[in-house]
Amino acid sequence: MTPARGAGRAATRSGGVATKPVPKRAAATTRADEAPSVTASCGCGCSGSDARDSAEGGRKATAVDPDIKARNLVRLRRIEGQVRGLQRMVEEDRYCADILTQIASVHEALRSVGRALMRNHLTHCATSAIRSTPEAAEQMYDELVNLIYTSAR
Questions:
Q1: What are phi and psi of 14, to 5 degrees?
Q2: I need a surface site. Which of 40, 44, 113, 152 has the fewest CB within 10 A?
Q3: Which 3 state secondary structure label does DSSP give 29?
Q4: pLDDT of 17-26, one tens digit each?
Q5: What are the b/e assignments for 95-132, b being 16+ CB within 10 Å?
Q6: 24-63: string of b/e by CB count within 10 Å (b at 16+)?
Q7: How many helices (H) and strands (E) does the chain have?
Q8: Are the C-beta atoms of 98 and 74 separated by less than 8 Å?
Q9: Per-residue pLDDT tens for 99-110?
């Protein structure tokens, strides 16, 4: 088995499977002369490391706007139907150009969901982290550069 791309930097979960690197979040401060503050908490509901490292694996959102979630789920269900249609087209030996056109449609639909998620992340998560502490801001800048690079492929 060959190592995953970036496996040297990747965090590992149960089973020894390499996953994407998880950006570190700044810890809460609890000095007596300061009010406790948790930095880089996610406005879309993604909380600190306890939720990120849950038994189900990966970070979890805890307070996502129900309207945004509903719209994304509708879009994803529509995309799921498009993919099932693609499967039928391949099974029925449909014309290649027609299949490729439908694949392009699925790609654009996925990009649409990605844009909505990126906007939410920038509006809430990134803004909160950038305004909190210089360390959290630096971590968020790194995360955003990686997200933009990944989504631009």
A1: -60, 145
A2: 152
A3: strand
A4: 343 444 444 4
A5: eeeebeebeeebeebeeebeeeebebbeebbbebbbeb
A6: ebbeeeeeeeeeeeebbbbbbbbbbeebbeeeeeebeeee
A7: 5, 0
A8: no
A9: 999 999 999 999
Handedness of CA 135, 139, 144, 145 (dihedral sign): positive
pTM: predicted TM-score of the whole model, two decimal places:
0.59
CA distance 79 to 146: 25
Exposed / middle / buried, residue 9 (Cβ in 10 Å: 0-12, 13-18, 19+): exposed
Is the model's pLDDT at 2 over the cut of 60? no
- Coil, strand or helix: which one is 7? coil
CB-side neighbour CA atoms (13 Å) of 95 = 3
Q: How far does the chain reach from its first CA to its final CA, in angstroms?
A: 25
DSSP single-letter state for residue 2: P
